[in-house]
Amino acid sequence: MQLASGPPGSCGTSDIFTVTVQNSGFRFVLNQPQVPWQPQRVFTATIAPDGSFNAGTGIAYMRGTASQGHMQGQIVGDACQFQFEADSDGTF
Fold it and tell me: Do the strands 52-57 and 60-67 form a parallel or antiparallel pair, or are they unpaired?
């Protein structure tokens, strides 16, 4: 997970990107301590048959693709934006 935009010192860049995919879905919590009115955003995603996912509402969202043990995408929070990539030993 890499910071794409936002203030580097306060965007939770030390958080490790990890999700557990079960039943074609996952949940991810974005910590954003610099946003007092929304210190966490919770994204609950369903992976579509084509491997795409899109979770969130309004300005905050998480979207990307997952297939053959590889996941990539974008997380947009209230003050920061991240790009991510993850690999697994299994398949989605």
Answer: antiparallel
CA distance 80 to 75: 8
What CA–CA distances, in Å, run from 58 to 12, 67, 79? 21, 26, 13
pLDDT 10s digits, 32-72: 888 899 888 999 999 999 999 999 978 999 999 998 889 99
Cβ(65)–Cβ(45) below 8 Å: no
Query: Does residue 92 lie within any of the structural domains?
Result: no
Closest CA to 3 of 32, 41, 46: 32
**2: helix, coil or strand?**
strand
Say if 76 falls within a structural domain: yes
Rounded to whole angstroms, the Cα distance separating 56 from 24 reads: 17
